[in-house]
């Protein structure tokens, strides 16, 4: 693979991918300080407003198991363009949302990109980075991605001192567009796309299991949540995840065990 022998191309490609991942993870916690302002303007309860964060994590968690499948099914440049395009659409929906329903819809669309991008970067690193440098590269990538989560609340606090909550989305737009432009120049296709199909039952088990478990964890922070229902969702989630794991050892093409295409 030619790109592996060209350090400048590798650096530019990883910078582009990490920029996209940083932006999408930043968006996750950027909303924290904006909830009170959104509640006041859209006239929703704290429980409803909290779904802007809970729903974001829920959708992202449900999509993550499909990331490896998408990486092998589509060329990397097209896949990353699609995910950042989805994130851009979600950001635009939230920016111009006339009510809370559209705002939540935009957040959920944003989360689809997060669910793909976070594991995608790690998979790409295992392909283009030599084994002796792979640990360091993955560590640096982890720091950059998690930096987005860490600075989100502080950055949103500064923004909200001078602007309303819509600026939390507007500030993401130029960086998202920049990432899309850089993708066209610096991201190269690494693997030959394969005409593979995802195992429907595995996808269903993963979505139901992770969705139920994450939903139950989200309910723990609600003061008026029903403990029995919360525990029930947690048990259903764990059960489906166990069924999902068991099925991966039985089928010929498990959802989570697609090879990276490189053993170097």
Automatic annotation (TrEMBL):
Keywords: Membrane, Transmembrane, Transmembrane helix, Transport. The chain crosses the membrane at residues 51-72, 79-102, 108-129, 136-155, 167-191, 203-221, 227-245. The keyword Transmembrane applies. Residues 13-264 form the Major facilitator superfamily (MFS) profile domain. It is found in: Cell membrane. PANTHER family: MAJOR FACILITATOR SUPERFAMILY (MFS) PROFILE DOMAIN-CONTAINING PROTEIN, MAJOR FACILITATOR SUPERFAMILY MULTIDRUG TRANSPORTER MFSC. This is Transporter, major facilitator family protein. It comes from Lactobacillus johnsonii ATCC 33200.
């Amino acid at each position: 693979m030619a790109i592996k022998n060209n350090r400048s191309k590798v650096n530019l490609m990883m910078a582009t991918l990490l920029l996209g991942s940083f932006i999408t993870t930043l968006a996750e916690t950027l909303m924290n300080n904006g909830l009170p302002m959104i509640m006041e303007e859209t006239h929703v309860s704290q429980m409803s407003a909290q779904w802007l964060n809970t729903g974001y994590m829920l959708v992202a968690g449900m999509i993550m198991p499909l990331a490896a499948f998408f990486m092998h099914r589509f060329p990397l440049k097209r896949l990353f363009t699609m995910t950042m395009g989805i994130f851009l659409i979600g950001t635009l929906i939230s920016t111009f949302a006339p009510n809370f329903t559209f705002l939540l819809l935009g957040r959920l669309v944003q989360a689809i990109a997060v669910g793909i991008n976070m594991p995608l970067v790690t998979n790409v690193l295992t392909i283009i980075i030599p084994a002796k440098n792979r640990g360091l590269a993955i560590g640096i990538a982890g720091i950059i991605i998690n930096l987005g989560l860490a600075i989100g609340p502080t950055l949103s606090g500064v923004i909200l001192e001078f602007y309303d909550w819509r600026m939390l989305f507007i500030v993401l737009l130029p960086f998202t567009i920049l990432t899309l432009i850089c993708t066209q120049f610096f991201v190269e296709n690494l693997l030959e796309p394969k005409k593979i199909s995802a195992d429907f039952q595995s996808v269903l088990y993963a979505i139901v299991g992770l969705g139920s478990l994450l939903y139950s964890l989200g309910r723990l922070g609600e003061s008026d949540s029903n403990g029995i229902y919360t525990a029930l969702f947690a048990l259903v989630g764990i059960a489906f995840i166990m069924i999902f794991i068991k099925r991966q050892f039985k089928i010929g093409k498990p959802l989570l065990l697609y090879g990276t295409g490189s053993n170097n």
